[in-house]
Design brief:
The protein has one domain: P-loop containing nucleotide triphosphate hydrolases (Rossmann fold), CATH 3.40.50. Helices cover about 50% and strands about 10% of the residues. The chain has twelve helices and five strands. The protein has helices at about 5-15, 30-40, 60-70, 75-80, 85, 95-110, 125-130, 150-160, 175-195, 210-225, 230-245, 250-255; strands at about 20-25, 55-60, 115-120, 140-145, 200-205. The longest helix has 21 residues, at about 175-195.
Length: about 270
């Protein structure tokens, strides 16, 4: 449980920042989707004045965990004890995720206080983690839905397309770890989403990336869940997506949806 003093400090650094959490089953492009949303908010410096833009950051939960594991602190020591558990497809316990996330947020927003929108793929995963989003000035949770078979294929695709030295330990764990991760998602994440009401936007993995991005931006534009992101910034992001084929966001989407073929594994 966060102390009042800690929560007060968190509220102080997040008072000018809204947040989008992106959740869903493993391997279904949460981080990719976060980067696409971020790209939609980024101007082309040749066409638009950068000072007129909304500063957006996208940092996935796994990146925050890796940051925590590098810290030579008590928190880092505690996190390293949970590495074997996470390699088995288990979620980091809520009390550890809370301590880590709030430490990272204070550090990052302390360095970059001009951040107006923080996109965090992989959060929230549990009912308790939803409370991590409360100190921010406005929140939206995007849930990417996918069937177990779609998820299995996505995990295999991610494993095969990743360099061996960068592959996730839980991706290499086979069927047992896959089912463990699915059980965590079904038993912990889905119940967490059921209580979010209007602040959660459900999107289907089967829809195109451009369609999902358009729906999210339209949802933000229509409902005003993110008060620190100006209406003008959202309008521009949606306009770039729909009318600027040469903008980075559309080039990124085209590359993701039409990737080069994954080379087949050569077995002896």
């Amino acid at each position: 449980m966060t102390s009042e003093a800690v929560l007060s400090g968190i509220c102080a650094v997040t008072r000018n920042t809204s947040i989008i959490g992106i959740t869903g089953p493993s391997g279904n492009g949460k981080s990719t989707y976060g980067e696409v949303l971020k790209a939609a908010f980024e101007s082309s410096s040749l066409q638009e004045p950068p000072q007129d833009e909304c500063r957006v950051t996208c940092t996935e939960t796994s990146g925050i965990i890796k940051w925590g594991l590098r810290q030579q602190t008590r928190l880092g020591d505690d996190l390293r004890e949970f590495e074997p558990l996470m390699a088995l497809g288990k979620y980091l316990p809520d009390h550890m995720m809370e301590a880590l996330f709030f430490t990272w947020v204070r550090t990052y927003l302390g360095r970059f206080p001009q951040t107006r929108l923080l996109i965090v793929p992989g959060l929230p995963r549990t009912i308790a983690q939803n409370s991590f989003l409360e100190p921010f000035m406005g929140k939206l949770v995007v849930h990417i839905r996918a069937t177990p078979e779609e998820t299995r294929k996505a995990v295999i695709r991610r494993y095969l397309s990743t360099l061996p030295e960068k592959r996730r330990a839980d991706d290499a764990g086979g069927e047992k770890i896959f089912h463990e991760r699915q059980a965590e998602y079904t038993g912990l994440t889905l119940p967490a989403l059921s209580g979010l009401n209007g602040t959660v936007l459900h999107l289907d993995r089967s829809e195109s990336l451009r369609t999902r991005t358009s729906k999210a931006l339209g949802h933000i534009q229509e409902n005003g869940y993110l008060p620190m992101v100006s209406h003008r910034a959202v309008n521009r992001a949606l306009w770039r997506l729909l009318h600027c084929p040469d903008h980075r966001v559309n080039k990124m989407i085209d590359h993701i949806e039409n990737p080069p073929p994954v080379p087949k594994l050569v077995t002896a």
